[in-house]
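Thread: sanity check for a docking pose with zinc ion

Original post by kr_44:
Hi all, I'm comparing my docking run against an independent structure prediction. Below are the sequence and the ligand SMILES. Could someone generate the full complex and paste the structure tokens? I mainly care about where the ligand ends up relative to the chain.
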Amino acid sequence: MEDVDFDELVASLTLREENQSVKSYQNTVAVACPACGEPFDDLVVCQENPTSLDLTMQLDLCVGTVDDQAVIFTHKQ
Ligand SMILES: [Zn+2]
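Reply from moderator J.T.:
Ran it for you. Here is the predicted complex with zinc ion included:
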């Protein structure tokens, strides 16, 4: 993801939830996923290592790292 300006990407998103393990953002403006090019639904930044995700639905996931933090782009199926 070296070509992606992550700070700029996050600035386009809406922060929905933040706790000590994860921060999640909703993509309300259809920003394209840097991994697959399709607009993603949510971005999850893992702030703890390791971190568990509690998924409530079946999702396609794209994964990257930024500053040694895992970032996950979710796509509803
Ligand atoms: Zn993707």
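The chain is about 10% helix and 40% strand. Hope that helps with the comparison, let us know if your pose agrees.
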